[in-house]
Amino acid sequence: MLGMHGTVYANYAIDQADLLVALGVRFDDRVTGKLEAFAQRARIVHIDIDTAEISKNKTAHVSVCADVKPSLQVLNKLITDSIAEDISQRIAPWVAEVARIRAEFPMRYPDRDDVIVPQYAIQVLGEETNGDAIITTGVGQHQMWAAQWYPYKTPRAWGTGGLGSMGFGLPSALGAAAAFDGRNGRPKKVVVDIDGDGSFLMNVQELATVFIEQLDTKVLLLNNQHLGMDEADIYPDFVAMARSFGVGARRVIKKDECRAAIREMLDTPGPFLLEVMVPHIEHVLPMIPGGASFKDIITQGDGADKY
């Protein structure tokens, strides 16, 4: 992932690239930051089926209005084995350089035993599901952590955001659970809504649908009792709320109980809500501040540590 909360090495690669082939992208501000500084060394080839997207935000040097699939098929035909081998040899130092940056600036989070940090809870969920679950989210910090720390193994296993709408996580999880319930010729899939307390409250009434339809929907609720991008404090009892809808629920506070609690959530037949109490203040890092460029990326701490 690149952009505002993307990895250092992905953003470095874009910043230093001399050619950027952009397939069906819109160069939104969460990816580009300061537009004039984004991929400023690169010639940009923009392939998109929607003419309105081409050069809308970032000017393309080569514009191709077409479907991505046949465009890639044409490009593949132009690359012979000898050309591919030559390219591989010439870019080997560049690949090694990006790998060096990746090793120097790995993804990391605070290693604490006194609390459950949200990144840890998501990492444990990934380990316990082997990265094979369908994950949905609402909008907020939990969404960014889910993007960073769940080890997705297959395409189309990540349903997030709904055009930036808080509350998207639970309803979209219901749809996924209905589609992958083991019927209709599809294999049964574990479906988990990784949500935040503020976003979850936006559509909490859909727990009634979960109960009525007995959809096998799990909710990993990362509760910091706060809207991470706002100033309002929130203190409902989510466990009691879930149980009032007939949905099994549990709260976990201690780190050494987190894995067993996640296992209980996954092993319990039918819907289940696991409320994980996480620190009130925890930053989503790395971070390129809004309107800034790669050179301003914050990698850890309070912003004192930059690339």
UniProtKB/TrEMBL annotation:
Residues 138-276 form the Thiamine pyrophosphate enzyme TPP-binding domain. Keywords: Thiamine pyrophosphate. GO terms for biological process: isoleucine biosynthetic process; L-valine biosynthetic process. It comes from the Eukaryota. GO terms for molecular function: acetolactate synthase activity; flavin adenine dinucleotide binding; magnesium ion binding; thiamine pyrophosphate binding. Residues 1-75 form the Thiamine pyrophosphate enzyme central domain. GO terms for cellular component: acetolactate synthase complex. Signal peptide: none annotated. The keyword Nuclease does not apply. Belongs to the TPP enzyme family. This is Acetolactate synthase. It comes from Haematococcus lacustris (Green alga).
